[in-house]
Design goal:
- The complex is a heterotrimer.
- Helices cover 32% and strands 26% of the residues of chain A.
- By secondary structure, chain A is α/β, with parallel strands linked by helices.
- Chain A has two domains: 5-241, P-loop containing nucleotide triphosphate hydrolases (Rossmann fold, 3-Layer(aba) Sandwich); 260-495, P-loop containing nucleotide triphosphate hydrolases (Rossmann fold).
- In chain A, the strands form five sheets. A six-stranded mixed sheet of chain A has the order 6-9-10-3-11-12, with helices on both faces.
- In chain A, strand 19 (419-423), helix 15 and strand 20 (451-455) form a beta-alpha-beta unit.
- Chain B is an all-alpha fold.
- Chain B has a domain at 43-169 and 181-261 and 279-284.
- In chain B, helix 5 packs antiparallel against helix 6 (131-149) and helix 8 packs across helix 9.
- The longest helix of chain B is centred in the middle third of the chain and has 27 residues, at 100-126.
- Chain B is globular.
- In chain C, 74% of the residues lie in helices and 1% in strands.
- Chain C has helices at 5-32, 39-64, 74-89, 96-120, 125-144, 155-162, 170-188, 190-200, 202-207, 212-238, 250-259, 271-290, 294-314, and strands spanning 164-165, 168-169.
- The radius of gyration of chain C is 20 Å and the shape is globular.
- Chain C starts with a helix and ends in a 6-residue tail after the last helix.
- The mean pLDDT of chain C is 89.
- The chains are: A alpha/beta, B mainly alpha, C mainly alpha.
- Chains B and C meet through helix 5, helix 6, helix 12 and helix 14 of B and helix 5 and helix 13 of C.
């Protein structure tokens, strides 16, 4: 069969601040074929899709679509050219019905009036193959996440794209729905539509894709044509993690001997289901898994962010209630949240303001703020963490991402830390600052014998710093890795439930 | 997520329907009509119905306008001031005894109405200033212009403008029109015009997009909709409805007043909410804003019949607004705890 | 506190702009209108501006607490307090304490109602306080229906609010004292820090252990109490209470806050800037009146100033 290249991305580069998302990435899609995109969290596969559809603009390289170089500035521009994308965060409007959403932004008119009959007909036709039992007159707000995802797909398909990009479309779907989707994708492929498919579930990629491109650290490291090569999951995992196990930078720290400091039993809230674990004194406990499996929620739950939580928690043998942040803070369970700008900082206020703020929540804090004392303390923290700022009075919004993250950590230093919760602290932080940060934390753990729970989307960080790693999948802890078992290989394999 | 209801269960389906805000507002309206009919003799005579329609029409028109803006994700605190401004413009352009000036007045005021909608719409849609704040600011601009034109209530009007209130009061009117006006008051026709305008708009892309933008501005934008333009159009439609109310007012009073509309702003918003339109945007029906306005108007009537002093009117309407906006939220809090 | 030049300018940019506007306005007034720049006239302008500034303080506290907070009921709380306390005081100093107590209770009740609805039930503050305004005006209407409002302010109150000492209106000393207290509370105490934090980023504040809803609710209560107390001062200044004595202060109170450089999104603000805003608006009003433009010009120009400043400040978050 002669296959036509419909899209070719060559040498794509993309930086966000100091972080390189794509270093030199290539991708090729063929008419009537489904191309799988594989890679660990942050390997650049999502960025690639977004550059093709014009959500982001590339810093370098070129994209050829149907033989000519294109550079879309928005998804709607790409859509007009026949490239549609199914977004992970849905683009549906909750208060409109299913069929209204499917044609939204591309309604047909008869004269000045909307042609609702043809819109309903089109919606019924598409959904007949994807989810026939769905009532197209239902409002989207009444649908479950899986049904919404299907409607999102139907919306992308409704405009007859020649290239369809599906970014994690199956995450919210049930088995039967996935099967329907795959049948539909095959039918589309037969009609000549090219598709890019990303999924964390390896078996799905192996089942539906004609070929797969694997990304690692912003580069495409391998391409597999499933028609010619055998489908070997272990081999794919090794491509994703890197073939050679690199030497551990530092020797494994001495085994943790301390007693249990925190015991969590039957934690239930939102997507978290029956989470139970123990944390030892002086331990760095990692939380890993695919993105969005409840890791961030777990960190927030431990920090007392959810008033409606149900959980038995014991700190040093004493029961603690985790229904209010102030309770956790009083017990020295302190959170460095994942989104530093939205959850961790007062951007317009000074470094000093940010660092002293958490003290205000403590009972018995004097009404008048002892600024002299706090300023000295703050300057010390700035020094210790080597935060680069002209003065402590500079607004944090003028600092770089890495230094902002250090401020978020710094505001807890005056407290007696029992458990430090780090939610992806290195996200959006350049390598230098990242190393500083982790080195400081490792030192503190050894010096003060405090405990750390670290969620990192980058598995390398888990491997380098953690004594134990919990792997989460759909809100549950599915595996606990210890000692020699902690490697990128095993983390990825357990995350994707290959092993 | 609250919508975990099993759709196969008929009992729950019925419950869903009964608890829809539209349904409860209809029930309340019927109750209001019954109470009023008991309190007022001859409630169901044509004369009484016409009088009621005249009394209710301005609020109905403003409530429908407020409904359109709220559904689009905005809020208009300048509606009352805009209504006042339009009455001032009408009575300034018109010269008593020169019938043709009435036509000029309508054309000019309509242009002013479009301008008013555009200025609000630019603030809300294009400049993305919070709607409440921007319309709070513009309400004073309309007030200022109104006071320039009419420092004190008054002004001139052409005789035929009473057409918009009661055709029988216009000298030399064709008897057939006079007779028609006795049964179908012009106020009703103005309301029907507003309903017709919305009926047409709701069948076009603009109507669909007003809901989409109000429901989720970012996702509507991501779907390729020009959200700023849609919000601007919603403001213009609102302004046109207010313009219709101004025609009625000047027809009735033959004068303009830069402050007459102030109390109507909050009542219009309250009507829309009572009619089941969600303040968060995207949900509800503009026609049910009309029902909400009727409910609030009947409340006033009942207060009147209950011999409660007119002085309590503002107090009561304030309380109604609080209850109307707090009730759905309180209900949601309650039901989400049960989950 | 030593600040490097650029940080200093960044922080006080809006206040500097407000100050320049005032100077320009007075200069313009001095050129166009005779007697505009005499000492008496300027002091009179400052006296009138101080009442706006007091209402703007209520407004500012609610706005700084963030969450789209605004209090449209301030003027009405003041009117209700003035109307109710007029007969209580009845021109006697002995009754002043009772009047103050009434103001405190009334103000905190109004504020609590506003705060509970806006903060705990998460209703839009503007609609809540607008409805509250209507309720308060309704109570005033009902209270005054069919009777005259009797009673005069106690002499002490009249001295504080209306009289002058050595040519200086006493109310300016009151405003000065309040400014010092407010500035200290905002910048030197944990209350101020918490208020700024909650307004600046409620998630961060919440995760730092602050009860965000209570802080917002208390902000409304402080606003209510201050508005009621300002109502007392207002009756002290005017000598009588009447139905709509303070409702005209609502718009200027918001405009003064915006001119004074307080961000409407919360988390930032300086009362001195707000006072400058109030002076600017009062000078503008006087100039317009002197030019024969009166009420119409005042509201028109206030509206335009607000709209223009808002679109100017909104410009940096217009991009998606």
């Amino acid at each position: 069969m002669i296959t036509l290249v419909i899209l070719e991305a060559i040498g794509i580069k993309k930086h966000f601040g100091g972080v390189t998302a794509l270093a030199n990435a290539n991708l090729r899609c063929y008419q009537g074929r489904i191309t799988g995109l594989l890679g660990a969290n942050g390997s650049g596969k999502s960025t690639m899709s977004k550059i093709i559809t014009g959500v982001y603009q590339a810093d370098g390289g070129e994209i050829r679509y149907k033989g000519r170089v294109v550079n879309y500035r928005s998804p709607s521009e790409a859509r007009k050219d026949g490239i549609a994308m199914v977004f992970q965060n849905l683009s549906l409007v909750a208060d409109l019905t299913v069929w209204q959403n499917i044609v939204l932004g591309a309604e047909e008119s008869r004269g000045m009036f909307l042609d609702n009959d043809s819109a309903r007909e089109l919606s019924t036709k598409i959904l007949a193959q994807l989810l026939p039992e769905l009532d197209i007159n239902k409002k989207v707000s009444q649908l479950n996440p899986g049904e919404m995802q299907i409607v999102e797909i139907a919306k992308a398909v409704s405009q007859n794209p020649q290239l369809l990009i599906l970014d994690e479309p199956t995450a919210a779907l049930e088995q039967a729905q996935v099967k329907n989707l795959f049948n539909y994708m095959r039918a589309l492929a037969k009609k000549g539509v090219a598709m890019i498919f990303t999924s964390h579930r390896l078996w799905e990629v192996m089942e539906i894709c004609d070929d797969a491109t694997i990304f690692r650290n912003g580069e495409n490291v391998a391409s597999i044509d499933f028609e010619k090569e055998e489908k070997d999951p272990e081999k794919i995992v090794s491509y994703i993690t890197g073939e050679t196990q690199k030497e551990r930078v530092e020797e494994k720290r001495k085994a943790v001997t301390g007693g249990t400091i925190l015991r969590i039993k039957n934690l239930n809230y939102g997507k978290l289901k029956d989470v139970s674990f123990e944390l030892k004194k002086g331990e760095i406990l990692g939380v890993g898994g695919l993105a969005g499996q409840g890791q961030l929620e777990l960190m927030h739950a431990l920090a007392g962010s959810f008033p409606g939580i149900s959980c038995e928690a014991e700190l040093m043998g004493k029961e603690v209630k985790l229904n209010k942040p102030v309770n956790a803070i009083k017990e020295g369970i302190l959170l460095v949240p994942g989104d530093k700008q939205l959850e961790g900082l007062f951007l317009r206020h000074s470094v000093l303001f940010n660092i002293i703020f958490p003290k205000m929540s403590l009972p018995h804090h004097p009404l008048f703020i002892p600024y002299e004392k706090y300023r000295e303390e703050c300057e010390e923290i700035v020094d210790v963490l080597s935060i680069k700022t002209p003065t402590v009075d500079a607004p944090v919004e003028t600092l770089s991402g890495g230094n902002q993250q250090k401020v978020v950590v710094g505001k807890w230093l005056p407290f007696d830390i029992n458990v430090l919760l780090l939610a992806d602290p290195a996200k959006g932080v350049d390598i230098g600052a990242k190393r500083d940060l982790y080195q400081y934390i490792v030192d503190q753990v050894q010096e003060k014998n405090m405990s750390v729970i670290l969620y990192a989307s980058d598995n390398e960080e888990l491997v380098d710093y953690c004594d134990r790693v919990l792997i989460m999948y759909e809100g549950q802890i599915v595996t606990t890795l210890e000692g020699e078992d902690i490697s990128e290989d095993t983390i990825i394999a357990c995350s994707m439930r290959v092993r | 997520m609250m919508n975990k209801t099993n759709h196969n269960s008929p009992r729950l389906n019925l419950a869903n329907y009964v608890f829809r805000p539209e349904f409860s507002s209809l029930v309340i309206l019927i109750a209001m009509v019954v109470i009023t009919a008991v309190l007022q003799e001859n409630f169901f005579t044509i004369k009484s119905i016409v009088r009621n329609i005249n009394a209710f029409a301005p609020l109905i028109l403003l409530a429908m306008g407020a409904g359109v803006v709220i559904i689009s994700g905005g809020l208009d605190l300048s509606a009352g001031a805009a209504l006042s401004l339009f009455t001032c413009v009408l009575t300034t352009v018109m010269k008593r005894g020169e019938p043709i000036t009435g036509v000029y007045a309508i054309i000019i005021t309509f242009a002013v109405a479009i301008m008013v909608g555009v200025v609000n719409g630019i603030g809300i849609g294009y400049l993305r200033i919070p709607p409440v704040i921007v319309t709070f600011a513009t309400s004073y601009i309309w007030l200022g212009i109104g006071l320039f034109l009419r420092p004190t209530p008054g002004g001139e009007s052409v005789a035929w403008f009473r057409m918009f209130y009661n055709p029988a009061m216009v000298d030399g009117i064709h008897p057939a029109i006079e007779q028609f006006g006795r049964v179908i008051p012009p106020a009703l026709i103005l309301v029907l015009i507003a309903c017709f305008i919305w009926f047409i708009v709701s069948k076009t892309k603009t109507g669909r997009y007003i809901y989409a933008v109000g429901s989720n501005n970012d996702n509507a934008y991501a779907s390729g909709i020009n959200t700023a333009k849609v919000q601007l159009l919603a403001c213009v439609i609102n302004s046109i409805f207010i313009f219709l109310a101004a025609l009625f007012f000047v027809g009735q009073n033959q004068s303009g007043d830069a402050r007459m509309g102030d109390p109507l702003t909050l009542r219009a918003i309250a009507s829309a909410i009572v009619g089941g339109i969600a303040l968060t945007g995207g949900r509800g029906s503009v026609y049910f804003a009309l029902v909400g306005a009727l409910i609030l108007s009947f409340v006033n009537k009942i207060i009147f019949f209950a011999n409660i002093s007119y002085a309590y009117q503002t107090l009561v309407s304030g309380l109604i607004v609080i209850v109307a906006i707090a009730a759905p939220v309180a209900y949601n809090l309650h039901s989400s705890k049960e989950d | 506190m030593i600040l490097s030049g650029s940080i200093f300018f960044e922080r006080y940019k809006k206040i500097i702009v407000a100050f320049i506007l005032i100077v320009l306005l007075f200069a313009l007034g001095g050129i166009i209108v005779p007697n505009f720049l005499t000492v008496e006239q300027v002091l009179f302008t400052l006296k009138l501006a101080s009442f706006t500034a007091l209402f703007a303080l209520c407004q500012m506290i609610v706005i700084v607490a963030g969450g789209g907070g605004l209090d449209l009921s301030v003027g009405y709380a003041a009117t209700l307090t003035a109307v109710l306390t007029a007969s209580v005081m009845d021109g006697q100093n002995a009754n002043l304490l009772t009047a103050v107590l009434i103001a405190l209770v009334l103000g905190s009740a109004i504020g609590l109602a506003n705060g509970a609805l806006a903060s705990f039930l998460k209703l839009p503050p503007l609609v809540v306080t607008m409805a509250m305004a209507s309720i308060l005006q309704g109570i005033v209407n009902a209270y005054t229906a069919g009777r005259n409002i009797t009673g005069r302010p106690s002499p002490i109150l009249a001295t504080v609010a209306a009289k002058s000492t050595a040519g200086f209106p006493n109310i300016l000393f009151v405003l000065l004292a309040i400014t010092v207290v407010v500035t200290i509370i905002l910048n030197k105490t944990k209350w101020g820090t918490i208020l700024f934090g909650v307004g600046s980023n409620e998630t961060t504040a919440y995760l730092s252990g602050i009860n965000v809803k209570w802080v917002r609710c208390i902000a409304f209560m402080v606003s209510g109490v201050l508005a009621s107390l300002t109502g007392l001062l207002l009756i002290g200044n005017m000598g009588i209470a009447f139905k709509d004595m303070a409702s005209n202060y609502v718009m200027p109170s918001i405009a003064a806050v915006v001119v004074g450089g307080v961000s409407l999104t919360g988390g930032d603000g300086n009362y001195i800037g707000v006072i400058l805003g109030a002076i600017f608006l009062q000078a503008l009003t006087n100039l317009l009146i002197a030019l024969g433009l009166g009420d119409a010009g005042k509201w028109l120009v206030f509206g335009i100033v607000l709209y223009v400043l808002l679109s100017f400040y909104a410009s940096n978050r217009r991009s998606r």
